[in-house]
Design brief:
This protein is an alpha/beta fold. The chain contains 16 helices and 12 strands. It folds into 3 domains: about 100 residues, no CATH class; about 100 residues, Nucleotidyltransferase, domain 5, CATH 3.30.420; about 120 residues. Strands 1, 2, 5, 6 and 7 form a 5-stranded mixed beta sheet that branches. Strand 11, helix 7 and strand 12 form a beta-alpha-beta unit. Helix 3 packs across helix 4 and helix 15 packs across helix 16. The structure holds zinc ion.
Length: about 425
């Protein structure tokens, strides 16, 4: 074999061979340029219709980036062709190894999108000597593609949650499957939290699949409940611990605020800056924080009572039998009597209205910790992506970061893998 034949073999592009190779230095970086020629008798493919044509209409020399060859940045130089297609007119040919509308090969594009699963786009851009917008574009398209090709078979439990994005009251909803083919994972991120805001999700998820959903895990918010009831006729709704506790913590914080308002100077000092230690679980507090909490609970009876009830409420989820859970709940409510804890009374009324859905966990032990975990993860992704104006991209990054489509894979890929 001739030396260039080795390169042709290593490159492995059908219909092309390496005619020449040169090494040049530019901006202090060594690059290898492989000049590719077409094998004789090859046909040109019309890009819109796939028609195979013998003759070219016109041509020019194109350079594209490929995977690094040893320590060299690698550039492929070849003749790119326009064809005169009887169906489409004069069109650019389609080449299998090229990433659409980018000056890079599919292999390189694939490596870039893989790296974007674990690195920031700026880091990938630096590493690969590409513009960050190119990298972002590649990553976005790759996630979009993965998202359309997802396996959604066998999903029967969906969870929905919300996060606030940016300043002000701007909410996004996060929809996860809790029992999909790859375990719990995020399916969709959309703007808003009203009933109609979830429509794009249902369109993507499909009518047939929605019919198979038996359980929905969510907060006691009308928009989500109505949307799920409309699209999943046989659904049972479960209000999970994470969401219910969030309402209780809000109530506790309201008690704290009310007490602060009526407090004298000394009490105000004790209450000041205690929100965090008051809302946190007592068992997770150590040292000074624990001491400060005990001091506060020792001097304010109403806060003491509210805190005690908050700490005990989680027990509601420890029962296997609904009857026992219901008794616990009645007992908990009893303790509100004569306490003048208005925010807690409101909370109790809300729980009463939704108690069947809260005790629904007894029938279906879905992995409830998952929703809380992804909420945190989503927040982190948004924080890291701060500065990207592209909301669609940010949503895709959240989905990727919380699902099987974001699993980082080894390189090189197995032989049966077909990039692009
Ligand atoms: Zn054509």
């Amino acid at each position: 074999m001739q030396q260039l034949d080795y390169l042709t073999k290593l490159l492995g592009f059908q219909g092309f061979y390496v005619k020449d190779m040169e090494i040049e230095r530019k901006d202090d970086i060594e690059r290898v340029i492989l000049e590719l020629w077409r094998a004789k008798g090859g046909k040109y493919i019309c890009s819109p219709c796939g028609n195979e044509l013998l003759d070219k209409h016109s041509s020019w020399i194109q350079e594209v980036r490929h995977l690094h060859l040893w320590r060299y940045l690698t550039i492929l130089r070849f003749e790119k062709v326009k064809v005169r297609c009887p169906r489409c007119g004069v069109k650019v040919e389609s080449l299998e190894f090229l990433e659409k509308s980018k000056r890079i090969t599919k292999e390189l594009s694939h490596q870039v999108s893989e790296l974007c699963k674990v690195m920031t786009i700026e880091d990938v851009a630096t590493f690969e000597h590409l513009h960050w917008e190119t990298v972002k574009d590649i990553d976005k398209k790759a996630i979009e593609k993965a998202q359309t090709e997802r396996n959604l078979e066998g999903i029967s439990v969906l969870g929905v949650d919300e996060i606030s994005v940016g300043r002000g009251h701007n909410y996004w909803h996060l929809i996860s499957s809790l029992d999909g083919p790859y375990g719990p994972e995020m399916l969709h991120v959309g703007e808003g939290r009203k009933e109609e805001d979830l429509k794009p999700f249902w369109r993507w998820f499909g009518k047939q699949r929605a019919r198979m959903v038996t359980h929905g895990v969510m907060d006691m918010a009308k928009g989500f409940i109505n949307s799920f009831r409309t699209h999943c006729p046989s659904i049972k709704i479960i209000y999970d611990k994470f969401h219910v506790m969030r309402h209780l913590l809000n109530a506790l914080n309201d008690v704290r605020k009310a007490e602060f308002k009526r407090a004298g100077k000394k009490m105000k000092g004790l209450l000041c800056g205690k929100k965090f230690i008051l809302l946190k679980r007592m068992n997770n507090l150590k040292g000074d924080a624990r001491k400060a909490l005990k001091e506060l609970l020792g001097v304010n009876h109403r806060i003491y009572k509210a805190h005690l009830l908050k700490e005990s409420f989680g027990q509601l989820w420890s029962y296997t039998y609904k009857g026992a859970a219901r008794r616990f709940w009645e007992n908990w409510k009893e303790q509100l009597k004569w306490q003048r804890l208005e925010p807690y009374k409101k909370f109790a009324n809300m729980i009463d209205r939704h108690i069947d859905g809260i005790l629904g966990y007894c029938d279906n032990k879905v992995s409830l910790g998952y929703i809380e975990g992804t909420n945190l993860k989503a927040r982190n992704i948004i924080r890291k992506a701060y500065g990207y104006r592209d909301k669609h991209y940010m949503k895709l990054k959240i989905i990727q970061g919380c699902s099987s489509i974001g699993v980082f894979r080894p390189y090189p890929y197995p032989l049966h893998h077909n990039p692009g």
